[in-house]
Batch of 4 targets.
Target 1
Amino acid sequence: MDFNLTRQQEMLRDAVHEFADAELAPRALELDEKGEFPFDIVKRTAEIGLVGIMTPKEYGGTEMGHLARMIAIEEISRVYPPLGFFFQTGHLGHWSLQTYGTEEQKRKYLPPLCKGEMVICDAITEPSGGSDPTTTQTTAELAGNEFIINGRKVYITLAGVADLACVLAKTDDKFNEILVEKGTPGFEITRRESIAGFRTTPVNEIAFTDCRVPKSNLIGQEGKGLGIGLSAISVIGRTGVAGIGLGIARGCYEAALKFAKERKLYGKPIGELQAIQFALVDMNVEIEAIKWLSYYAAWQIDQGKGIREIGVDIARAKLLGCDLANKVAPKAVQIMGGYGLSEEYHVVRRLRDALHLFPAAGTQEIMKVTIGRSIMA
């Protein structure tokens, strides 16, 4: 394994870093205060190739791969994590379409998605829980050339702004992933959840009442929907969370380091105090260690390895990336004292966002179950 980034990946990292500092940082507080989905920023990221970063060029993407995607999510989340969460979640549907969709589905939906003209969400979680999708109660009854969908989905990120939903539903005793377009009769967004972080990324409930969609909206083979949904969560969702966790940790660390160099106590910068310096060292070392573990997981996907081979590596990345963000953010608050709790310094905002990573793409406990099964096999 060669951990050196390619020239293209280095250029991407630098370009996204510059974009985040120039276009996201000045608007971060305003965006959070308004809590409105930033359509203009999503369009801008589409223009520079980030929305379609892993999508083949023939469908409007830039085809840079999964490691490039993680680097981009990390750099964006360093400054504004809710936008990183848009990529973490929105790419679930992109990946399902480009991996399992028909040629007609790909040509119809992927180009506008890559341009930021459409938004897609993944609708799996139900009131019974998200960790075990086999308990799905939403049904898709096949009637001729149509599916009739009935049921309810909860905690669906982006549903309130999505033009298209990938819906996991049960047909008899099998599961299907079905595309449902916004405006389809019987498809209703019923509420927006009030959550602690990611204020510009809406999380909603969806209700389906005799919602009829063409059978041609089926993604992949009939009865294979559960595998498609779980693969998307593993390959896309969990690597995305790892990237966001890295970004949040880096943003907090950089803010704390800058503060420690500038804030003076006892006649010298507090960064020269051993207790503060050791805390910064711990943050620095953990970020670097988990960065390469996470990059390795994404790199393996680019090498064509399947989820059965690398699912454990991805679970490790999600587990530690989430923990990292939730360790570094509070440490940054401690180093900065009262300033750390001020919205102006952006650390407490990142701390709120970090909390949302615990349940995203599978809880920490589910990651441990995945890893545990592997080491006991």
Note: Residues 172 and 254 are 53 Å apart (CA to CA).
Target 2
Amino acid sequence: MHKYLYIALMAAMVQTISAQRGGESTFDFLNLTNSARVAALGGANVSIADNDMNMAYHNPALLQREMDNTLVLNFVPYMSSINYGYVGYAKHFENLGTFSFGVHNIKYGDFNRTNDIGEDMGIANAAEYSFNFTYARQLSPMLSMGLTAKPIYSKFDVYTSFGLAADFGINYHNPLSQFSMGIVLKNVGSQITSYNDLQEGMPSDLQIGISQKLAHAPFRFSLTAQNLLNWDLTYKPYDAENANGSSLGTEEDKSGFGDKLMRHMVVGVEFMPTKSFHIDFGYNHRRRKELGYPERLSTAGFSWGFGFKVYKFLFSYGSARYHLGGSSNHFSIATNLSSFR
């Protein structure tokens, strides 16, 4: 019964939502990557099924009973003075399923507030918050489903907005073949109150991913397809001569089928010589094409990181190269509170 209810909900949402490009929707902070491990794997992963509670942020179906009483803390000192992070806790209840609660927030820093003639009017600040309530249930030994409800609060100086979004996820995991597959419909919802009279769309996304661990080697490979609600992700630069003043240029799009396809793909590789240590690498083609400097692409779009367990804590670090001007650094800590009893 649960299985058919989830499938019906996801099918209905796919029919009712509209695709959004980056910068054309509100609450875009919902798509930021918190987990150091996922950041190292290219910024998106919805299929890795192991005892990592951070994966449930990207696919609620990955929340498992083994995560009972687990606490995770993530912190990302982002570009400029922007900081964001996530704190989450999970609890399993027999015959009900697994629940978790988390808070995802981003702080944009303080700004000088001035009037239209440049007079100092004090300090302004901006921040956004998402309160994540997740429920997951194992439907069969290999199939699980989950959903996350996300009340959202956003404040930019004196302007505020409330919203409500939801994620719906499915995960298939075969322990014998060490193969897993995830499907997630993310950020389905709407603004409840807007900053002004303009109602903006949500950053909805459909993601599908697969992961395969080699049977006789300590490697796991992942492939994640993202932004599947919009085929053409190519960016057209601003054209000053465009008569209608649109930010979408009129320059002919020279991207071929292969490039457009790869802009949806995120590739990740994990090297796991022991259960307590792993090294991660990732590649995000869209990030490289959009943020790489044409004359010097450098390592834009590539990412890496590692994780290790010390005592009862799992520490992870991830670094993602966005462009020549900077990289993001992600820090994660996780522990199971039951281990301290």
Note: The first helix runs from residue 2 to 16.
Target 3
Amino acid sequence: MFHGAGAGGNERPADPPTLWDIKASMTHPSVSHQPVLREECVHLLCPRPGYYYIDCTLGLGSHTRAILEAAPGTTLVAFDRDADSIALATAALSDLAPRLATRCADFKEWRRFDMPSMPFGGCLIDLGLSSYQLEGSGRGFSFLRDEPLDMRMDARTGPTAAELLNEEPREELERIFRDLGEVRFWRRLARAIVDRRRARTFRTTADLVDAVRSVAGRGRTHHPATLPFMALRIAVNGELEGLGVFLREAASELAPGGRIVVISYHSLEDRIVKQTFREMARVTVDYQILTKKPVVAGEDERRRNPRSRSAKLRALARTAEGEGREEEGAR
């Protein structure tokens, strides 16, 4: 049986904390958070009354609000691994509570949860971090703040970023920085981390930034810690694991005309999404790629929200009964 917001057994934390005073600049989630490609997401998802949708990464709830407001009569199930984000977004979306259910879990575990007894209209996956996680969580997601090196989206479980840096062998650190971050100086950085931790353990983001600076060199267009931080965050949270499997599972459950919309922020994520969509569209006429090339933010949005500069949006639809496999954009 499907339960609405606030229900669902032990997947929701009991008595979530009040977080409105975390940062002076974050007195209300909607004030500081700028959702990436919001209008484009809603247009491609095309929510319809009488269907349910999944927001796989609730964050501060801006995309969720846009979807629900675009189509009265829809129901939405929102997933997020971050219990604090769930608490903030639930409060911000209280006016939409009758049509919204939240689940404090990884969206890739969706099949263990009850869903509404309605046709599945589609899902949105925004694979980026929320403003709260970067600016207010205090978990070390950003190298611009000196915070504890945690980086866990779900603070209840799993090793922290500091524990990985202090305990993993050099070979595993090399793999993380090379394969998950495509860091050019991956070998030197892994060696520097191992050398440093012999004298003192890694505790804060400043410790990792210092290690990066010691080996990064000059002449870069972005901060040298950008990719190492991203790689470590992906490793801590297993962000790429099972993404392709989820896309296939979700697509198989779509009602005719249903859609999957994904926003990725780096080449590894985008590659998984692109290849999975192409494989599904190639092997069966049931699926249609809606984006010949990834949709990117326009100049105005990139100026307002620098985080949108690396965003790439791709969309896939399940064809309506009787339709052919005409694509809006051939591959």
Note: Residues 5-32, 324-331 have pLDDT under 50 and may be disordered.
Target 4
Amino acid sequence: MEKYQISEIYVEPSAMERELTRRVLSSLPELPVYETDEARTSPYEITTEDIASSKKRLYIRDYKGEPLKPCPGTQGRLCCNYFIVNLAVGCPLDCSYCILQHYINSPYLTLYANIDYFLEKIDARLEAAPTGRSAAFRIGTGELTDSLALDPITGLSQVLVPFFAEKENATLELKTKTAEVTNLLGLEHRGKTVVAWSLNPQPIIDSDEAYSASLRERLEAALLCQEAGYRLAFHFDPIVNYRNWEQDYLEVVEELFARVKPENISWISMGGLRFSPDLKPIMRERFPESHLPLGELIPCEDGKLRYFKPIRVAIYRSLLSWIRGRAPGVPVYLCMESADVWRHVFGRAPSCDPKFTIDDL
């Protein structure tokens, strides 16, 4: 795996004495450190040339606001009642299809240092929530960054996993394309943390998921977590339609279940390649060798470009049949798809409510 490189660190004055800041600075002692709040207050128009360099600059600051938020989902699509905690904004990996290229207008990777504030707010929200399985929170940290890519220098998993181990009405999902699981091993998790991987065939990883772990490295990391007693999850997302997709995705499924026991999997999701029209020129400029923006994608009612619905349905049905043949009891769901697509794939939609839970599957 080619490794990302951080070359300089900026720290907001209020965050300089935070434990997380000290951990990062001690992990990267050779890098220049600049104490400044200018990175937060100065407006910035980021260009495509800036995106790659922004992945080399780390800005550590405090967070103010509500840390626990529902997944924004997308208009007209079923949402799985997922909640997000953004402990960082920006990702050191560099996937060609990543929406952050269009969504984030900062020349930095931003890492929030006041972790106690996050935990206090989350704790208060969980304490005030109804009890019972159907009211339990699924909480992920991987919306605006990779959950584990920076973990070797932040050690955040060593704070989050024990915290959620004590929460009866919440499950933490750490979603990653890396193999950075060393800090997870040996922690007391009580089955309350699900470690999840995005999966794609190796040709797609090689061409469109820069700095990420190989498929084999991801699955070997999953095996380590399985041996440590963690629940696991897998996300076939984004699924790419290309000449050899059928054989290649079947091989991914076979490799997955050659290593992972179905009874240890909490859920599997499937989601086709999708992105906003505004992202397409950025993809073509930054990744001229990628075939992803050249596919036959059509605009849908939510404004996203997607493969034609019959193509998506056919791919989902194939993938579902392969998964069901090896793991008939594992919950499988679609990410950001309409009730109509659900019915074509599963024969039904999970709920009349636009938001559902894993228990509805």
Note: The first strand starts at residue 8 and ends at 11.
